[in-house]
Amino acid sequence: MRIPFVDLTGQHVPLRTEIDAAVARVIDAGCFIGGSEVAAFEEEFATALDVPHAVSVASGTDALVVALRALGVGPGDDVITTPVSFVASAQAIVRVGARPIFADVDAFDWNLSPAAVASALSDYVRAPDGTLRAVDGRRLAAILVVHIFGAPADVELLASIAAEQRIFLIEDAAQAFGATVRGASVGGFGDAGCFSLFPTKTLGAMGDGGVVVTRDSQAAERMRRLRSHGANASAGNEVYEQVGYNSRLDALQASVLRVKLPHAEAWNEERRALADGYRERLRGVPGLSLQQCPRDQVSRVFHQFVVRGTRRFSAHARLRDAGIETREYYLKPLNEQVALAGLSRVPRPLPCAESVCGDLLALPIFPGLTHEMVKRVADEIAAICTSET
Length: 389
Ligand SMILES: Cc1ncc(COP(=O)(O)O)c(C=O)c1O
Prior knowledge:
Blueprint: H1 9-12, H2 16-29, H3 36-49, E1 53-57, H4 60-70, E2 77-81, H5 88-95, E3 99-102, H6 114-121, E4 125-126, E5 132-133, E6 139-146, H7 155-165, E7 168-172, E8 180-181, E9 184-185, E10 192-196, E11 210-214, H8 217-227, H9 251-260, H10 264-282, E12 288-290, E13 298-299, E14 305-309, H11 312-321, H12 351-356, E15 360-363, H13 371-387
Helix pairs in contact: 2-9, 3-9, 4-5, 4-8, 10-13, 11-13
Bound molecules: pyridoxal-5'-phosphate.
Residues 59-61, 85-86, 88-89, 146, 172, 174-175, 196, 198, 208, 210 line the site of pyridoxal-5'-phosphate.
């Protein structure tokens, strides 16, 4: 029995008739960019998250870029962020002309550590204009937190730190659609929350897509302008007051997402049940540890189920030989990526990030994966780890 890392047919086959009808509706209407499908999807997405504004864009990466720009983050600014993420989180900061400042993660949940953020903050002092400035004059503009693998970071604490310091909190919730803290959806705690609709995400399109959510109606308006070349529609046709992007979710994707959105919670429940199966079987396996999510009333999602263990390399290869596909996320902390060298700063050592990265293995988890398959993957891993102790 071959077990793929991800298989989307479990989501799409049961909905195929509805998806076909939605696509046909868009083709018949002949409106492919913007229009009622996109507007309806944005409204439904905002309702699902219980936030007032959802602005769709062309990808999760663009969601971060548009959010940062809309909040006025740009050249001369610093943004404190995590080194344990997909490269897009830090690249977005660089793309708006700002500089990522990497602070360490916590050892238990692999998310940005509020204590490390507090320590990074001590490098800045309050200037007469009320901003936080480093000795070289750079402004500290924001904290960009990532909910890695679907486990919420401590957004309540980070939001209060950001508010106290009068800087922005931006949530990279690309991997966390459906996760909640005290019943409130992640993405809604910061000044902006950014989601990826990449097909494998917990809510995925049939191509690229992204959404920014915000409670700030003026920021939402700036996001809408930025995604469409900086056009200020309310000032009349062809009025461009800033340089923006062509970054729109297209109507075909919106129509498919509208079919999928009502099923996302059930799919997340299915992923949680599969994760329970992994956790039960992997408990106590020598050399292996799991991502923890210990805070009260936190309901995570499992975009990925990731194990940490020093025997990852041989486990990856041996699982492949057994017909089980896994992925190595993340091989190095972002500060070690060549693309970010010279464009970011590491003010303090990152021992947790360095020890976590390179030691992680993501296991198959997706709607449609069976408990029998989970058992097989877990048993193989347990056998590998036990044989190598
Ligand atoms: C944490 C994180 N941020 C941002 C992104 C970028 O999203 P997209 O691929 O939709 O541009 C991803 C996508 O994998 C991600 O995992």
